Amino acid sequence: MKAETNRKDVYRKALCLLIPAAGLAFLLWYIKNATCDVVYSDYIRLVNSYLPDVYDPDRFFVPDVLTRIPINYLGRIINVELFGFSITFDRVLGAVSIALAAWVFGLYFIRHKLGSIWFFLIMAVTFSLNQWEMLTNGSGWSHFFAFACFYYHELVFDRVWTGQEKKGDTLRMILLPVLIILGTAGPYCAIYAVVMILASTAGIVRDLWRKKQKQSECSALEGEKGLGSKGDFRRYLAFLFAVLIPLLLYILSNSFAVEEHAGATGRSLGELLMDAPSFPVRFLLKSLAGMLIGGEELIQWISDGKITDGFCYLLGLFVAAGYLWALWMNLRHKIYERSLFPMMLLTGGALNHVLIFLSRYIFEKENYALSSRYALQFQVGILGIILTFALAVQMKSRLSAAGRIFGAVFCIAILLGNGYTTYREIEKAPYREERFEMMRELAPLMPHLTDEEMMEMNPAAPDLYEYRKGTDKLRKAFEILEENQLNVFR
Questions:
Q1: Tens-digit pLDDT profile for residues 39-69
Q2: pLDDT tens-digit profile of 304-335?
Q3: pTM for the whole thing?
Q4: Number of H helices and number of E strands within the chain?
Q5: Burial (CB count within 10 angstroms: exposed 0-12, middle 13-18, buried 19+), residue 217
Q6: What residue spans define the domains of the chain?
Q7: Nearest partner of 145 among 186, 194, 193, 86, judged by Cα
Q8: Who has the most CB within 10 Å: 32, 326, 400, 474?
Q9: Distance (Å) of CA 92 to CA 37, 136, 329, 412, 425
Q10: Please, is 111 exposed, middle or buried when counting C-beta atoms within 10 Å of its C-beta (0-12, 13-18, 19+)?
């Protein structure tokens, strides 16, 4: 029996290493076949802001430096010095960061001895190409890295919560929020910080309650593993402040930032609700539906008349039901006592949907909720739902037949939907690459073209480079690259 258990453990560890490696290889293959190395979109702004002197302290020591994701400065220095400002380099960093997130889930599966099927499902969602837009736009690599850091911090917290902490976990809990919030998270730190503050507060309340029970009942719980020793709540209090202090520093830095929202209507949320009270519900339902099937596919189906907006809302309701069912199972079967990680993911995913609405309602377009760029944030909740089902199944005696059926239907739907989205993105890869090749062919001419010549050669040039803040800035960026022999001029 012991030998068989050891074999299963070895198999599980090998699986949790090999599958993320295979997923990374798949993403690198996709990047190779869907892109080419040319500056566009956000990189136009980055070139004008930070190149050619990536060591210039005046460009780093600015009041809102913490909003600019400091780890990007290091990445940019390495990129310029070693790779001539390669967009592919950043894309590879993004793919590696996704693999790191997968590795974190592998550690979780090893610790809880969950089945291989559940791990394959988690990996299918993690490596899904529903996040193609951020993956091909390499400037978002640090966001992928930030989420890998979020998952790791939550995993460490979960070990402490369940009394399975490893040596150094307390120090990690103190240091990680500072490094993550002030170093790599950028605006994504908001939901992560809220989740960690709520979890730390839960730890404080739980340990104070248990301490009170021990004092009043003198029960046998004193030595039980995972319940926390006398005064443990102070440690959770330290965890809370370890998150709160860097968060406040980030908010202070963000107060100096100047934001531009091209296309915003300028109306307040109150005005919008007076005119279209159902807009928030429609927006949120579409943002949920986009995690079942890629948003671009749904928009195309609606445009072609294959489905209606109403059907899209139904898909969103189905995903919302998954959230509610997972929440109910966490509370009803007290899964959170065994592991708080799924609940943290559920909370983060739900709050991300709310955050995207609050930051994007200003455009008054409900289809903004279906943008691929938000898939990274939204998939957090889907991962939490799947992990909840996995733990519930492992606790066989506590899961009803209805729970098993709904869990199976939900997971199959997620697998098929994400699988279809990934299949469609693989089909689109040559066309995406063709668009990048058009950018690359035009790029060497950009520094020397007038607006009239640019429009004559390619009337869609500004849209082709996905930069709509003036052709002067577009031209200036390519001038900088040409003068310094970077990117397409290397």
A1: 998 999 999 999 999 998 888 888 888 888 8
A2: 999 999 999 999 999 999 999 999 999 988 99
A3: 0.92
A4: 22, 0
A5: exposed
A6: 143-257
A7: 186
A8: 326
A9: 12, 10, 38, 30, 18
A10: middle
